[in-house]
């Protein structure tokens, strides 16, 4: 990249070691002005301290934004309307946060006259793909600087030495440093590295931050009633809540009941297999609850078509194609399917398990007890008609059997 063409860069900035070093490295390497962008998407840490750190390094334009409601409303909830799950297990907690950050990086670049954006994702992971595909989809001519693909500061020791050499203030956290690489938002927290790089090694109990172990969860179940409108939860136990508050509440209650832990080896888009552990208490409750309300409000063929398309939709999100035309087309279809997904689902939470124990919809249920009953249906369903239905569906198989002789 021609360094002389870069006058201003918008950096996704947390204030931690990596992005603090990146900030100084950009200033030195590209001799450019840096704009910092720090997003609160529910990671559970204060974001405001990033302002003082950025100011101390000479940054004039500092963006710190609370995006929690937007994150859940416009990204998490639309994804859950599709019952999205990657490779049968992963609820895409990291993946779904990247489109929002990419969009704001591009918008801030437009607002401030930035020539480029920059991020702290490594050259081995999925996040570099997600950030950059999103940026190019939203602003084709944007330039992207990915320091981990350019510099030789490829260890924590080198980063610390660079920080000391350039007098970059780095907060040394007291106590034992976590051996894991962690990423958190309102949907989940992820863990990678350390002993997890051995797929045979069991995670240490003190690794988990959001949930108690199922063994230590309460001995009595917790019941929740989730109210859905057009496929989204709008109330818990009759109390209306904003999208972010819904997820915060489900995380808290789910975590207290040992719900949401996951240990998987996943296939990264860049080609390697990676072992990761995740805590997604709220999402682990949302998924079966949403499927339960759909079970009584969606037409059979609509439900089956959604299930067929879901793996493709999940791969699009995992691989960074949120802003692609095919994802937007699929989203329009998914959202249209949710027009009548209204009602209440009752779930039982007990020692790591989520069990649906009730579902109802006053206005949109397709469940007809008078037809489904095993008791006298009073003529609502003529059982004799099933004979012709079966014979017609068996016709092609009978013909094939006759051919075999």
The third-level CATH topology of the domain at 181-298 and 340-360 is Argininosuccinate synthetase, chain A, domain 2
Mean pLDDT: 94
What is the share of helical residues?
A: 25-40%
Question: What gyration radius follows from the Cα positions, in whole Å?
Answer: 25 Å
What's the number of extended β-strand segments?
14
**Class from helix and strand fractions:** alpha/beta
How much of the sequence lies in strands comes to 15-25%
Word description of this protein:
This protein has helices at 17-30, 49-56, 68-81, 98-112, 127-138, 156-165, 243-256, 281-297, 300-319, 325-337, 369-372, 385-404; strands at residues 8-12, 33-40, 62-66, 116-118, 143-145, 181-184, 189-192, 222-229, 232-236, 239-240, 261-267, 273-279, 343-350, 353-360. The chain is α/β, with parallel strands linked by helices and 405 residues long. Among the domains are: 3-67 and 94-165, HUPs (Rossmann fold, 3-Layer(aba) Sandwich), CATH 3.40.50.620; 181-298 and 340-360, Argininosuccinate synthetase, chain A, domain 2. It has a 5-stranded parallel beta sheet, sandwiched between helices. A 5-stranded antiparallel beta sheet has the order 10-9-8-13-14. Helix 4 (98-112) crosses helix 5. It is elongated.
């Amino acid at each position: 990249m021609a360094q002389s063409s870069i006058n201003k860069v918008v950096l996704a900035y947390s204030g931690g070691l990596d992005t603090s070093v990146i900030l100084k490295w950009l200033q030195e390497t590209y001799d450019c002005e840096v704009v910092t962008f720090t997003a609160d998407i529910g990671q559970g840490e204060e974001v405001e301290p990033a302002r003082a750190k950025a100011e101390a390094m000479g940054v004039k334009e500092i963006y710190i934004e609370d995006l929690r409601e937007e994150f859940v409303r416009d990204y998490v909830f639309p994804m859950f309307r599709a019952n999205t799950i990657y490779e049968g297990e992963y609820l895409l907690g990291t993946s779904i946060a990247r489109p929002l950050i990419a969009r704001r990086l591009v918008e801030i670049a437009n607002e401030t006259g930035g020539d480029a954006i920059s991020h702290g994702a490594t050259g081995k992971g999925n996040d570099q793909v997600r950030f950059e595909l999103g940026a190019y989809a939203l602003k084709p001519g944007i330039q992207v600087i990915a320091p981990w693909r350019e510099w030789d500061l490829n260890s924590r020791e080198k980063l610390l030495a660079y920080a000391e050499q350039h007098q970059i203030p780095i907060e040394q956290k007291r106590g034992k440093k976590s051996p894991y690489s962690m990423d958190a938002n309102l949907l989940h927290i992820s863990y990678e590295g350390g002993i997890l790089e051995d797929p045979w090694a069991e995670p240490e109990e003190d690794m988990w931050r959001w949930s108690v172990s199922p063994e230590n969860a309460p001995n009595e179940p917790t019941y929740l009633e989730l109210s859905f409108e057009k496929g989204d939860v709008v109330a818990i136990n009759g109390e209306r809540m904003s999208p972010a508050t819904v997820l915060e509440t489900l995380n808290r209650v789910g975590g207290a009941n040992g719900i949401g832990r996951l240990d998987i080896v996943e296939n990264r888009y860049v080609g390697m297999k990676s072992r990761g552990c995740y805590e997604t208490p709220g999402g682990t409750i949302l998924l079966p609850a949403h499927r339960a309300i759909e079970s009584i409000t969606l037409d059979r063929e609509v439900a089956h078509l959604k299930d067929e398309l879901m793996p493709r939709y999940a791969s699009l999100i995992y691989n960074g194609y949120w802003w692609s035309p095919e994802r937007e087309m699929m989203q329009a279809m998914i959202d249209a399917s949710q027009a009548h997904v209204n009602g209440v689902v009752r779930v039982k939470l007990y020692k790591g398990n989520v069990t649906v124990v009730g579902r109802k919809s006053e206005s949109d249920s397709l469940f007809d007890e008078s037809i489904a009953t095993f008791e006298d249906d009073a003529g609502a369903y003529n059982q004799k008609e099933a004979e012709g239905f079966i014979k017609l569906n068996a016709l092609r198989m009978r013909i094939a059997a006759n051919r075999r002789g």
